[in-house]
Design brief:
45% strand, alpha+beta, globular, single chain, Nuclear Transport Factor 2, Chain: A
């Protein structure tokens, strides 16, 4: 994997995040993917289950801004640090760490940590 592949995947993730279109969400994952919404919970497994789980907790389009940096990548694994701001009143901010295992342009494992910044 190259950094450009990881950047493309993150861009597709962000598109899916904004659209909540099931096709956009499905395009991120292999058929047998595992999504760890928290590293200490059981994963959501399988593309269809991931799409359903995603849509259950979907953010509204335009509700967030997101910035990220690639911390490292190689051997099919990417590490991304992100910053998410929810445009609520008052705004809430989160720090994110993602570990993404890619097979070509789809993730077969995605582990995320998200921590809310204290007000």
């Amino acid at each position: 994997m190259k950094e450009k592949h990881l950047d493309r995947w993150v861009a597709k993730y962000r598109k899916a995040w904004e659209s909540n279109d099931p096709a956009d969400v499905a395009a991120l994952w292999t058929e047998d993917a595992a999504w760890y919404r928290r590293p200490d919970e059981e994963p959501v497994t399988g593309r269809d289950a991931i799409v359903s789980a995603w849509l259950e907790v979907a953010d509204a389009p335009g509700e967030t801004t997101f910035e990220y940096e690639v911390l490292g990548f190689g051997d099919g694994v990417g590490f991304v640090r992100g910053w998410t701001t929810y445009q609520t009143q008052p705004p809430s901010e989160f720090s994110n760490l993602w570990v993404i295992r890619l097979d070509k342009d789809r993730a077969y494992e995605f582990v995320e940590w998200w921590m809310e910044k204290p007000s």
